[in-house]
Amino acid sequence: METIRNYLETMFARLPNTFEVQKAKDELWQMMEDKYAELIEDKKTENEAVGIVISEFGNLDELADELGISSFVIQENRRTADGFRNVTLAEVKDYLHDKTRAAYAVALGVFLCIVSICGYLLNFGWSWRVRNVFAVSFMFLAVSAAVGLFLFSNYIMGRWKFLGERACSVDFATAEYVHSQREGFRVTRSMMVTIGVILCILSVLPVVIVNSLFGWSSGFGVLLMLVIIGIGVFLFVAAANVNAGFATILSLNARGTVGASFVPSQKQVTYKNERISQVMSVYWQTVTCIYLCWSFLTFDWHITWIVWVVAALVQQIIKAL
What we know:
Elements: H1 2-12, H2 19-41, H3 46-57, H4 60-67, H5 70-81, E1 85-86, H6 89-115, H7 128-157, H8 162-165, E2 168-169, H9 172-202, H10 205-214, H11 220-250, H12 274-281, H13 283-298, H14 301-304, H15 306-320
Parallel strand pairs: 1-2
Helix pairs in contact: 1-2, 2-3, 4-5, 6-7, 6-11, 9-11, 10-11, 13-15
């Protein structure tokens, strides 16, 4: 019966999630269920019963008039003729694999950009000229490697551009698979974000400790601070990009359709104001940027952590409003 249920959900996935459509889906499910039970009583095997049920009730075009949803089906057939594309489970698995690789490549590139100036903070007793050559060389190598990682990320994600350019959808089984993968990643994501926040907050400690021991002339404390912040930002970026891959697939089923309510994770907070929705999509990235800029410009690390508390409060107020 699970196979039949999945097939039924996929049949209705792209239809609007209205009372009429939901009623038609329930009626068709009842007919399928009754037919399946009848076939099992007639000593048919499970596979035979599933095949017969799907062949008899699997064409929504033929059943649309009887179910009272012919107008919805005709409208959907027109959209399909305009180039609608169903993304298969195999394609989704490939996409998530590529997205994970790209996420860590981008995160590593951001880390290299942050630590690229560390060459200026190292002092091995070299002359000013040698030290300057080393610092410039290190910066260009780090930035070049970062650019290479960004280009690599764009290259491996290039074949998935159609997801944002064409109308696409996923079936019920695929949506459930992505949902389960996202739920499995939830704990990992929370740990990555938590550790990243803690590292950014504690990154000032090396500066305080090293400078108290060796004086302000030592740049080693700032170097350690940049490395720790880089690791924290690496965790932020990687977690956000991997999670974005799941969100991309789960958002393929257009809002307002039956497919958009396949899994609980698709029932997210939505904002009535489109501009607010766009702002909130980059909310925490902006908060992180404000935190780092304020901290670096003032070095008031013992105060700037309050940004996270205020940001969380503001987000909850916006959601409530």
